[in-house]
Amino acid sequence: MDVLYFAWVRERVGHPKDRIETNPATVMDLVNDLRAREPRYEAAFSDLGALRVAIDQELADFDASLTGAREVAFFPPMTGG
Amino acid sequence: MDIRVEDAAFDLGHETNVFATRQSGMGAVVTFTGIVRDLDKGALSAMEIEHYPGMTQKALESIATEAKTRWNLGDVLVIHRYGRLHPDEMIMMVATSARHRVDAFQAAEFLMDFLKSRAPFWKKEVTQDGAEWVAAKDIDEDALKRW
To answer: Which of A7, A57, A59 sits opposite B122 (nearest CB)?
Structure first.
């Protein structure tokens, strides 16, 4: 599964993409796995209220299942327009 | 429906003209254009716009499709740029056509409200002192509730 980061989430993590070989059940499980990796992930994921998540390019919730997911993306609230 | 996500500048007059003249039986065309605004203190050197290439087009199409189900529209055009832009450059435009102006106006407002908070773009303001991500505003999230 590919995990993508955008905007300041990407800057805090330090790169735009990770490939995850484990199979976390939910987005929250994935977040906890990432947080345990290194302090920079903890810095990126310290305030989940400031983050949004998309599963396979559709907005989702942090308790959403990752069964069958190929791509998960984390980013701050969007500022288009 | 014409949805374009691109880094190149667009010609507002040309796009509006092409959109308006290809309509048939539509009595109203409404356009909105977003422009890079300088900071209040006047120090913006650039606005960097990042997006999520795999998702952006789909998200915009889904917002436009929703607008077409809610209002009696002829057509929808959305152009949104990404990359490094400078003050007074055009960032994006929407155009709607409808038989009557109320549908065209309301759909354009709806498109703008959702495009601000539900399309995966992120803006970063660059000044001489550094660069800062633009924070999403509560007022923009609240704007969705009226629809």
So the answer is: A7
